[in-house]
Amino acid sequence: MEGLKLANAELMVYIHPSKSGNKLKAICRELSSLLFQYDETFDGVLLAFDVTVKSKGAKILAGLNPYFGVKVEASLLLFNPKPNSLVEGKIVKISPESIHVIVLGFSAAVVTDIDIREEFKYRKKNDEDCFVSSSHKRHILKVGTMLRLQVESFDEEVMHIAGSLLPANTGCVKWLEKQSEEASHMDRDDHKRRKIA
């Protein structure tokens, strides 16, 4: 999935002296306060981190609250989907006007009817709302389906994605992967036939 990136960073984490007994725990607590929030410094939403303390020493800051700074090296997993990138999520609601998706368990995405390919027609099958492809009957989008969509925009403040199903490489992830496997299998068969001939 696009939009995820690993970054290595050297950080200075400021800790209150009362937490100096267990520096690693205090560092993890400070970094945990940044999880699932957009941070301009990292240019993304921090999803996970792994830290190692770089030095045993610490720099004490002068002032009313004498915090001390500890240098750490951190591996960061960041989420920042750019326009036209592809993301995947689980469909949680379908209506004739829209498809609602949860991406990575925390970010909401919506695809409105103007951003859904014309081949997808809204239907009610077995009392269940779904979109069915008119050109491929087995390509069905319903609640619970893993959906690949193109990012139109990402609102960092509310972690909301506006998506699109207009490109041909979007839709049900299982169906798209099956089509990709069949196409690569056909290419291999064609290549073998050419060698024989």
In short:
By secondary structure, the protein is an alpha+beta fold.
Average pLDDT: 86
Distance between the termini: 40 Å
Helix and strand string, N-terminal first? EHEEEEEEEEEEEEEH
Major beta-sheet overview:
5 strands, antiparallel
List low-confidence stretches: none
| Overall geometry | elongated
Written account of the structure:
- With 197 residues, the chain is α+β, with helices and mostly antiparallel strands.
- It is built from two helices and 14 strands, in the order βαβββββββββββββα.
- It has helices spanning 23-32, 173-196; strands at residues 4-15, 38-39, 44-53, 59-60, 68-79, 86-95, 98-103, 107-112, 120-125, 128-133, 140-142, 146-155, 160-164, 171-172.
- The strands form three sheets. Strands 1, 2, 3, 4 and 5 form a five-stranded antiparallel β-sheet that branches.
- A hairpin with a 3-residue loop joins strand 7 and strand 8 (107-112).
- The chain starts with a strand and ends with a helix.
